[in-house]
């Protein structure tokens, strides 16, 4: 009888899970999900992500359509990959999809609690958004900061001249690696707007310390993290990503905290500054009578200032580097831009921000670069706040929602020859990136769009114009336009795997 007892328990233990699974499967089959590739047991579609998820998701579009369903471990995920689907999201479901999915690495030091980018949709996020909009999206404030941008770009041009000349004097070709100059210039531009001071120099100890900490933070934060798809592993942190992110994040927060504490002491001593900057706006905020906290904590101010550095430097410097790479790869476009600058501005003065509206081909080059090489190919993931019917599909609460800008910018329904660099497509076109044309979304869409888009456009446009006006650029001897390495990698933003090196020759 013992064998019969064992057989009975074996049958029950086998049949009960089978029946429960069958019922769940039948119930799930009645819910309409977007199409997507079949997944593996437990891990789902992890292998469909790869090291270039923006490109891999785009490849799946031809088979499964513009709304893609994936199961990444335990995480439900939907990927939006067309202008039509992006339009639907913003016009009908922007609020439903307005929360953030916070990567485990960004919970280090409670960073997400002070951040605007990763904050849950709510009162704290609205306060930061209002403060940022009043400083970063008002034309008067942007115009008032023109001298800061001119000063920072002037310094960068001088550094390039000195280093290229020094290289030739030492018997070299004059070749430079452009990303270093662009990043330091962008840091100083943001730091002047935020803190009214430069914080980086090619040879300064503090600048190098900040630069190294940023690079290490970006490196760890850009790694795929198994915890983000298998949340039950959070306590273990098996890859050490949160631990290492925390180490370098602490270094960055300590550096920024020093600037914040210094300003607080100045205010306590009654020392008034001639000009008011973004840090002043944050420290002077006393609430708006709409239920928000009266003041921002010192820790949250520090986190928010750091976030402005991360968001305003890596993205703009990389976009400018991509633009230079595309121009060197397309000599006809380089010639057209140079001719436009010579015709409109001439050789007797440097190009200024007031000239930008008179330089349509420059604007076209910037837009085409942002289309082909969006700084965030996958927008920061959103999270569904509730069960939502999206384009006839049921999207459950807490589903991760990803806008694949890289794919949208290559949608053949929106763009002719979408993989080609053709600035001419934007000449005499009213298509822009401010949120009304869903085929071009380098700054995102809706409530969660980038608050610094106007400032970023000015920075990239003016920097690129000065680089082209100041120098004739050549590729190194062993590199041609045809074999220039244009491979991509994702960190905090879209980077070149092999940083651009070029030879500048001063224009007389």
Written account of the structure:
This protein is α+β, with helices and mostly antiparallel strands. The chain has a single domain (31-506), classed as Cytochrome P450 (Cytochrome p450). It has helices at 2-29, 53-64, 83-93, 111-114, 123-136, 139-144, 146-169, 178-195, 205-221, 241-268, 278-284, 298-329, 331-344, 360-372, 405-408, 453-470, and strands spanning 67-72, 75-80, 99-100, 176-177, 382-383, 388-390, 393-395, 400-403, 471-474, 488-490, 494-496, 501-506. The chain has a 5-stranded mixed β-sheet with strand order 1-2-8-5-3, covered by helices on one side.
What's the order of the H and E elements?
HHEEHEHHHHEHHHHHHHEEEEHHEEEE
Low-confidence stretches: 1-28
Number of strands: 12
Report helical residue fraction.
Answer: 40-55%
Distance, first to last CA: 102 Å
Gross CATH architecture: Orthogonal Bundle
Beta percentage is 5-15%
Helix/strand/pairing class, anyone?
A: alpha+beta
Mean pLDDT: 90
The count of domains is 1
CATH topology: Cytochrome p450
CATH class: Mainly Alpha
Protein name: Cytochrome P450 76A133
Cofactor: heme
Subcellular location: Membrane
Keywords: Heme, Iron, Membrane, Metal-binding, Monooxygenase, Oxidoreductase, Transmembrane, Transmembrane helix
